[in-house]
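Model the whole thing, not chain by chain.
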Amino acid sequence: MEKITVSVARPYDVIVERGAAVRAGELISEVKKPCRVLLVSDDNVYPIYGGTVTESLSRAGFTVSSFVFEHGEASKNPSVLFSILEAAAKESITRSDLFVALGGGVVGDITGLSAALYLRGVDYVGIPTSLLSMVDSSVGGKTAVDLPAGKNLVGAFHQPIRVICDPDTLETLPEYYLTDGAAEVVKYGMIADSDILSMIVSSGVESNIEELILRSVKIKRDIVERDEFDRGDRKLLNFGHTVGHAVEIAADFSVSHGRGVAYGMTAITAAAEKLGLAKDCSEILKKALEAAGLDSSLPPYSGSELIDTMLRDKKREGDTITLVIPSVPGECRLQAFPVSQLGELLFGEVRP
Ligand code: GLY
């Protein structure tokens, strides 16, 4: 078992252990006395792991009720959020009780926000079951739901009291989603640890999965500790995300998040090399993306199709936008660019 402590205002541990889901009750009882639990999950994950986690919590003395919603990003909305809050009230969850998020990024984000809002804040534990949520969204306390105007527009910082990552749960994750999460692992390699890239290039993602999760969580931990509230270094985690997010929107979300990020990392890296800001990055990025099963080509959209969306990105600050620019493999930096130069910088297109 590996325990990675995230030393924010209220420190907590991320446990990475094969079979940890079966021991969820025991692992949670180390940080929370037996209480009522609202177990939140979706209709993909709950039928596979809901029973195991409920039994484990009950064995450890917790009283469990569950709230299960339809899987998918479309459920990450205020209406489902309020249904979770109503369920908590109906089950008489009090301030000393607990929410548990069992599932991928959507479940984690909406449960975390429910926990932030219910009674002005109750504890929650994350049990992420997708690669993307293990290495990214379950760590760091960003919680949110979407609005019709955009993703994650309503949210709060609310850190969990524990995160339980069980790599065995990835065995039931469809290949498509494993590949999607792998884009975030490649991202960690590019921003902070070039050994991650070498490992993926030499033997892919699945055979190194535990080591890749550990390395990724440690990088995320380090960045979150330096900048819990996303005012500086935490923006490094957005490498590839500005273009990637624009691709997701241009494709009306038929391109998944990880695949969008893969396009975004490729575009920004190519631009940085062309401008002489980056060295030796494109080749290793391409190899790592391909070894992870991701498309390593430039985005399948023109600059003009993407720029307007990028200008509406919440990462924009007035007339500038801060982009994450690679320097060498394993090292990136933040650089602000005038928004008027974005088209030329990224796609060689001068705006009229
Ligand atoms: N997923 C980016 C962050 O946690 O800041």
